[in-house]
Write a structure and sequence with these properties.
Helix content: 25-40%
Shape: globular
Number of domains: 1
Number of strands: 2
Distance between the termini: 20 Å
Structural class: mainly alpha
Number of helices: 7
């Protein structure tokens, strides 16, 4: 999504500290400062207006109320997420714990419901959900138009679609 937004014309806020690797060959589009949201460190938000920022859903509750946010939730099949994480751990010589995996789909669903409910109750948040699987499998024109409509900004739909790399969709359920 970050690559699509950037290609479409929205500047992204990233520090490029986490370099591309075999698990994410086109980069991570992360900003290390985001991890400090839970500690109240939000000064970096002063430079964020008009930018796309990758923030995990659990940290959204720490965003200050004085800003307005448009949140795009990327949802992906949970079994694919688990498989992707398992393969990444194996490549990093960290043994995955298969016992924990059976609980993750239910925990994830509960978390998403809680965060979605919280976001819907916030006067300074609007949200849009994008299905990762549909986007990568070819339903991109309709999904991209919905993203453009949601963000209410002029964007290059063709470049956004070209930014999708189906070959990186390696962990399928």
């Amino acid at each position: 999504m970050m690559k699509m937004l950037e290609a479409g014309g929205i500047p992204v806020l990233t520090d490029s500290l986490r370099q591309a690797d075999i698990d994410n060959p086109e980069g991570y589009y992360e900003l290390e400062s985001v991890k400090a949201l839970g500690k109240g460190e939000v000064n970096w938000l002063n430079d964020a207006e008009g930018h796309a920022i990758k923030i995990i859903s659990a940290l959204l509750v720490h965003l200050p109320v004085e800003y307005t946010y448009r949140v795009i939730f990327m949802q992906r099949d949970m079994q694919e997420i688990i498989e992707s994480q398992r393969r990444m751990l194996i490549r990093r010589d960290v043994p995955p714990n298969a016992d924990d995996d059976s609980h993750l789909p239910a925990l994830y669903a509960k978390h998403l419901a809680k965060v979605s409910r919280w976001v819907s109750e916030q006067p300074n948040f609007t949200a849009h959900t994008v299905d990762y699987n549909s986007l990568v499998k070819g339903d991109s024109p309709a999904a991209i138009q919905k993203i453009i409509d949601f963000l209410q900004r002029p964007m290059d739909m063709t470049k956004m679609q070209q930014a999708i790399t189906p070959s990186l969709y390696r962990n399928r359920s």
